[in-house]
Design brief:
With about 290 residues, the chain is an alpha/beta fold. About 35% of the residues lie in helices and about 15% in strands. A 7-stranded mixed beta sheet has the order 2-3-6-7-8-9-10. Strands 1-5-4 form a 3-stranded mixed beta sheet, with no helix packed on it.
Length: about 290
Amino acid sequence: MVKYELIQVQSILNRLDDKLDGFSCVYTLNPYKGCEHSCQYCYVMSDKYIPYEKKEEFFYKIQSKTNAPFLLNEILQKIPQDCLVIIGTACDPYQPIEKKYKNTRSILEVLYNFKIPTHIMTKSDLILSDIDLLEKMSAVTFLAVSFSIVTNDDLWELLEPRSVKPSKRFKAMSILASRGIRCGAMLAPVIPYIINEKTVSDIVSEASLSGAKYISTDDLRLRDTNKARFLSFIEKFYPQLLRRYEIMYSKRVSPPVIFSKKIADLVEKMAVDFGLDTTAIGEFVPEKRQLELL
């Protein structure tokens, strides 16, 4: 049973070391701790990222950062207005808890007031509840909505047992795109030997039909706790692949380049064929502006 809690935090933005496509700085923001989706491959389950001492609580104890909008309003008065804020890197901002607390919406309202470029990542069609706000944001600043789509409806429940069906994500993408909101699909992670080239091709094709402007991919990364958890999943459902995985990840956290390149090349070729960008940012050029400090 999922337990919801209200918490207050000391900070809300996490600054990344690298710059991105002309932005003066890039921050990540997560409205919640924990994520109900329970994805088998969840990278946050590694020791490096897990926010809970009892690791499995990550999927069952969901905490809403109630003071996040206040903290964000304070910090945005002190940082450049040409930064990028990425929402949903360690939890889904539109998991079921959002229906009750609307923390993500409150955060987006602050970002809209400051006209801050924003990139939202989600697996949920619940984002449609904020379509009015997303339209307004898109009219005044850069906004991208990336739907994480790893597989089709056939394998979805096995890999992402408490998330929304991929077909519903494509439908939500289509609705947002029809309202002029920049959307794309993140095929991330590409799961070796389970997600094949046909699945990748189908996802790219469906994304294009759904109004996507970009497509991107990322590797399956496995380390310590999340590696042990994922290999247990493989042993149970794909025992014939277990030895391959043990060898592939014996001395590394991601697949060999030769594997990654094969999928990346396929996606890049299809992106060209469909006229899609391969990044959420695309050709957007940030406007260099400074806020007047209060």
